[in-house]
Amino acid sequence: MIQQVTINDKQYPLLFSFRAVFSFMDGGNMTSIQEADNQMSVDFDSMLELYEQAFKKGAYKDDSFDGDPLSAEDIEDALDEDPTLFVTLQELFTESNVIKSFNDQEGNAVKK
């Protein structure tokens, strides 16, 4: 499911796809979504990498989006300008279809 987030008055699509989540998990040698959630809580660079992948996939899949996806640097700058964006992105991550699927399989491992 493509989600939307507003940054600097512009709507950006993002999609937490299986590829984005598994790429993130592979890079950190994680075996469960709970480990991924814990890693995002402590490793800012890993979190940026996951978000960057989600913005790339969202821009690719959303035919109505006209622009470039946000890079890790763009995301970092946006977080510096609006720290509440961190909470918004975390909520979108936990509400994504991929995470819902993992939660169903792992007995609700990742909680809001």
What does this structure look like?
There is one protein chain. The protein is mainly alpha-helical and about 110 residues long. It has one domain (about 5-105). The protein is about 60% helix and about 10% strand. The chain has six helices and two strands; from the N terminus they run E-E-H-H-H-H-H-H. It has helices at about 20-25, 35-40, 45-60, 70-80, 85-95, 95-105, and strands spanning about 5, 10-15. It has a two-stranded antiparallel sheet with strand order 1-2. A hairpin with a 2-residue loop joins strand 1 and strand 2 (about 10-15). The model has no long low-confidence stretch (mean pLDDT about 80).
Please give a handful of descriptors for the protein shown.
9% strand; globular
Mean pLDDT: 81
How many E-type strands?
A: 2
Q: Tell me the count of domains.
A: 1
**SSE topology string:** EEHHHHHH
Cα end-to-end separation: 18 Å
Gyration radius from CA atoms, angstroms: 13 Å
The unreliable regions are none
Put simply, the count of helices is 6
**Within the largest sheet, what's the order of strands?**
1-2
Class by SSE composition: mainly alpha
Give the helix level as a range of percent.
Answer: 55-70%
Given the C-alpha coordinates, what overall shape results? globular
- As a percent range, the share of strand residues is 5-15%
Oligomer: single chain
**Major sheet:** 2 strands, antiparallel
